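User: what does the whole thing look like in 3D?
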Amino acid sequence: MALIGILNTARTLKQGATMHIAKDAPEYLEAISYVGVSAQEMEKAGIKDGDEVVVFSDHGKVTLQARGMELQPGSFFMPLSYLANRLVSSETHGTGVPGFKNTVVTIKKPNE
Amino acid sequence: MVALQLGGAPAATLGEVKNRADLVIFWGSNPAESHPRHFTRYSGAAKGRMNPKGRKDRYIVLVDIRPTPSAKYADEFIQIKPGHDFEVLTVMRMLASGKLPDARSVGGVEVQTLERLVSRCKDARMGVLFFGQGITETRGKHQNSLVIYQFGKEMSLYSKFLTLPMRGHYNVVGSGNTMCWQTGYPFAVNFGRGYPQFNPGEFSVVDLLKRKEPDAALIVAAEPMDHLPYEAARHLENIPTIVLDPRETLTTRMATVVIPVKHAGISVEGTAYRMDHIPIKMRAVLDSPWPKDDEPLERIIQRVKELRKEKAAV
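Assistant: Here's the predicted 3D structure for the full assembly of 426 residues, as structure tokens:
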């Protein structure tokens, strides 16, 4: 079953430390290529830690690994990067700030 | 920034925080990952004039939607529901003025927990609330920051209380400061009519790109292809772009023209602003064959003036 929730994108230490190597360096790609999901929701959707999943929003789609994280149900996490920004809404509500922490996304298995 | 313009802010330097603050609240901020030196230099373990024991002299509270790595450095972690910052802060303002909400919990937090936090704020020798992008980029955006500034001002009736944004990205404060003293506005400034106009949502970069308004772009030391929503940034792939950057980036890779420049603060001296608006003098430590940012920019301006003259003469 598909999971629907709000995507929270944020800096991580690993992403911040590896972004200066190169944006296509294996270290950076490893640091950014996952979506954090709560253990409760992973179980609900039949997803295991490290499984490949498709994450999509009204703005784009990416395929990456699911990773178990301590999150509230309905809340997903991705490190800041061009991958997360494929999904983020460019709506700024008149503030100039896009929806880095306020975009609705759906997560599902690739074959669903 | 918009909230700051609307409400003003009780603020001070990080030196004041280090020397005086005995209550430190991080709200929607994860300094252990986003500002790794903050705890040790200013807000956690740092020893100050009135905090001789460093960490033991401070009570640290973390408010967030998830237990980030910063939670283990805090004395108390308060978990709120995503997107409920405005409600929680508004109830804290109610509690501060002696009113009780008609609910046991708000935004996933027991009202009793908030009462204790408000009491700590009132009783602090100096309290400081640092807020991060968990406040400014979530539902409510600048309204969340505004209610924080209002709460800080109200707490200043009882104690010395500060509200400081955890600004990210190198020298983003310098950009805002320079724009302010040059134009009167901190960002989203349009010079199209020959004088500066300010309007976030209209002249801010994400909104302009989303509406596909620019027909050319000059990008200086910025990485929009990585840092902006692709839905907006992809317009840059369809227009001529000139990029000034010391390194190869996703933006230089798609640029029409790339001008390599010296790395500010490494190969060229100058001034960068700390998050508390303190200008820091930077020395050049490494040599570089490339020009400083302003040299190609001056030459572009000069050439544009010449072309205008030539056009006028025709």
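In plain terms: Chain B has two domains: 2-165, 172-313. The domain at 172-313 of chain B is CATH 3.40.50.740 (Rossmann fold).
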